[in-house]
Amino acid sequence: MIPFISFNTQLETHSEELILAVESVIKSKWYVLGKNLTEFEKNYAKLNCTKFAVGVGSGLDALIISLKALKITKEDEVIVASNSYIASWLSITNVGATIIPVEPDPQTFNLDANKIEEKITNKTKAIMPVHLYGQPCEMDKIMGIAKKHNLYVVEDNAQSHLAKYNNQITGSFGDINATSFYPTKNIGAFGEAGCITTMNKKLSDYVIKYRNYGSSEKYFCDIIGSNSRLDELQAAILNIKLKYIEKWTLERQRLAKKYDQLLSKNYRITVPYIDPRAQHVYHLYVIKVDKRDQLQQFLKEKGIGTAIHYPIPPYLQKAYVHLGYNKGDFPITERLAETSLSLPLYPGLNTESVNYICNSINEFYKN
Length: 367
Ligand SMILES: Cc1ncc(COP(=O)(O)O)c(C=O)c1O
Fold this sequence. Notes:
Blueprint: H1 8-28, H2 35-47, E1 52-56, H3 59-69, E2 77-81, H4 86-94, E3 98-102, E4 124-128, H5 139-149, E5 152-153, E6 164-165, E7 168-169, E8 176-180, E9 194-198, H6 201-210, H7 232-263, E10 269-270, E11 278-279, E12 285-289, H8 292-301, H9 331-339, E13 340-343, H10 351-364
Parallel strand pairs: 2-3, 2-4, 4-5
Antiparallel strand pairs: 1-9, 6-7, 6-11, 8-9, 10-12, 12-13
This protein binds pyridoxal-5'-phosphate (PLP).
């Protein structure tokens, strides 16, 4: 049995230091806004090449708070990919702004930068590039458009820790950027956690207040904030995981290369296209195939777990019926939703497993 995702190797290799870290937090009797978070924010800002990193409760909160920090409200429009994960859309709705969906590039799955300008109106306030599956969006073009039209950029970096575009790390391009440390992410907590990165002290200060009831001093409330703090247990765990993220990323890239080698010769399978300016970190390894559902069933019978990211685009979700979109409105998005299949890829997956998965896929398409 090859599961779609497994934490086994990470846990087997690092359980001792992870447990020690958890024990140390418990014994410290200090569980929120303490030294582990301060240390994590320093480490993550360094890794992400930004001046500031502020831990928050989740990736979705990180997106919402980023939009709030930019004062984006119901008068404004935000441009985002039509095929993004639902959280990107939810963040825009949560601040009351209007979502302006743009089709992805069918090769990279990312927001098509060439289709952004036609969607800009006098209400457009920001562009939200989501580096889907771990491949950066075309950040040179996106930043150029934002500059030309005086728009903010909020990167959704949840799936792309350590990815680079033209050698610059994602999460360092936008005015303010959000990421997630949901357990399955490339850097995963043992619970909920997220982070905001920025070069702008004013925005960072706003987030520091907002996440803590709008307060910078106990019992003084300056703005209407929330409770969205990255707790000490998660921060201690993340501090350990940060030590290994470069190694784990290389392993993901090595496994992806192996998949590429074994699958790319089969004309029935489209392996991930990599923009030559991008360094993909393979949060997910997503192939495009016909007969996707039959293939998934076939692999299941062979003991191979797979997943679909994402079967229903955000604009066709029940939650967004009121926006009035219909099937057929974003054909590229729908084609991707019908043909994409994510294969197992995580540190610890061995070469024999990748061989077995690829042989099984090739066997399915033999006839
Ligand atoms: C692209 C993207 N944005 C935002 C999120 C939201 O992160 P979280 O689950 O930590 O709220 C996720 C992950 O779940 C994601 O994949």
